[in-house]
Amino acid sequence: MSVADTLVERLTGQVYAEDVNVEVGIVLPLDAITDPDSTSTGELVGHGPLPAGIVTDLLRYTGGHRWWRRLFAHPAHGTLVGGDPTRRYFDGFLAKLIAFRDHGMCRDPFCGAPIRHTDHITGKKAGGPTSLGNGRGNCVRGNHLKELPGWITELLHDGFGPHPHTVRTTTPTGHTYTSRAGP
Fold first, then answer.
1. Which of 5, 82, 108, 137 makes the best surface tag, with the fewest CB within 10 Å?
2. What is the pTM of this model?
3. 178-to-9, 123, 166, 183 alpha-carbon distances in Å
4. Distance in angstroms (rounded) separating the CA atoms of residues 58 and 55
């Protein structure tokens, strides 16, 4: 390890170059999102066009935090017309609070796996905030499963009133399961 590597590690806490935090602004044409066989390229803000595979690798293999920032392009001429001012990622102290509240375990019924994702109960696209009340700890499976058709996850109590943080999950078969944060 060089002196420069040691300096960077002591200043940033990053032991490896792969541990850098990544926030990527990507502008994608509509067909790149709706057609899995599209050959369209996205534009990595500040760097120009990149194949989707490279952008995916950037986000998949970094050891640091990852954030997506939604950017909106005009459908006719493709110029940037807006963007989401907030991150869609639970990070820092908020993520730690959720992990503490959920005892480090997935909140899905009968799971108990370690938390790997901190998830929005009411999704961002449905207007759900990135907040303590709207967040819960999940395993990877539980986070992805709730996005499948027929699965419904609802916040019953945010934990700030007389009831503990309570989430109801309804499966495609109509079974319901309630998860309450413990003390």
1. 82
2. 0.54
3. 44, 18, 7, 16
4. 5
